[in-house]
Amino acid sequence: MIYGAMKFSIGGSLKLAFRPWVEGLENIPERGPAILASNHLSFSDSFFLPAVLDRKVTFIAKAEYFTSPGVKGKLTAAFFKGVGQLPVDRSGARGAGEAAIRAGIQVLESGNLFGIYPEGTRSPDGRLYRGKPGGLARVALATGAPVIPVAMIDTEKIQPPGQVVPKLMRPGIRIGKPLDFSRYQGMDGDRFILRSVTDEVMYEIMKLSGQEYVDIYATAAKRQLADEAKARAEEAKRERKQAAAGNENG
Question: How far is CA 221 from the centre of its chain?
Answer without folding.
Answer: 16
